[in-house]
Amino acid sequence: TDGGHSGTCIHSRNHMSGDSYENSEHCTATVHGSGTLHTVAFSTESCCDHLHVGGNSYSGSSGPSDQSVSDGDEITWSTDGSVTRTGWELCLR
C-alpha cells in the first residue's frame, strides 16, 4: 500500500530508486486540485538545494508539514552545482 496517501504524489529525480537527485536541476509542478501537502521523505542539501511551495522555502531535512495548497499553486525545485542527497517525496491529501 502507499500508507494511506491519495496517490497524488511527486518526488525528486531518482528518489524512488534510492539514488540521489542531480546537480543543477530546475523544475516546476503545478497543483491540480486542492488539499494538504504531506512530506513522505525529505533530504536535501540544506544550504543550496531548495523546494518552494507558495511563499515557503524548504531544504535540509524539513519538508512541507501539512501545508495547504490550491489549484494552480506551483511547486518549484532547484539544486546547485555540487552535493546531492536522496531528495524528497510529497503527497497531496
User: What fraction, in percent, of the residue positions are helical?
Assistant: under 10%
- How large is the share of residues in beta strands? 35-45%
- Output the radius of gyration: 12 Å
What spatial form do the alpha-carbon principal axes imply?
globular
How do the helices and strands follow one another from N- to C-terminus? Answer: EEEEEEEE
Outline the structure in words.
It is globular and about 35 Å long. The chain has no helices and eight strands. It is mostly beta strands. The N terminus is likely disordered. The chain has a four-stranded antiparallel beta sheet with strand order 1-8-3-6, with no helix packed on it. A four-stranded antiparallel beta sheet has the order 2-7-4-5, with no helix packed on it. A hairpin with a 2-residue loop joins strand 4 and strand 5.
Helix-strand layout with pairing:
Elements: E1 8-11, E2 26-30, E3 35-43, E4 50-53, E5 56-58, E6 65-69, E7 74-78, E8 87-92
Antiparallel strand pairs: 1-8, 2-7, 3-6, 3-8, 4-5, 4-7
